[in-house]
Design a protein that fits this description.
73 residues; alpha+beta; Molybdopterin biosynthesis moea protein, domain 2; 3-stranded antiparallel β-sheet; 37% helix; 15% strand
Amino acid sequence: MIRATGKRLLSLKEAANYIDTTDGNLRQLMHKGELPFPFVKNGRRTLIDIKDLDAWIDSLPKFHQVKQEIAKA
């Protein structure tokens, strides 16, 4: 787990940067209900708990690329 900042609650722009996407894409995921964690509204600002982001990332399926070696005859 890499913490980009010492803050626990991130703005949409900071959260998007943390998961390497755009804030527009993050808004779409939130609007579609595809993010399985809550967010905090502080006036007009939307804040996301970095712990929820970390837990979501940890729950994603992991893929391993296996390098196949071709045996020389």
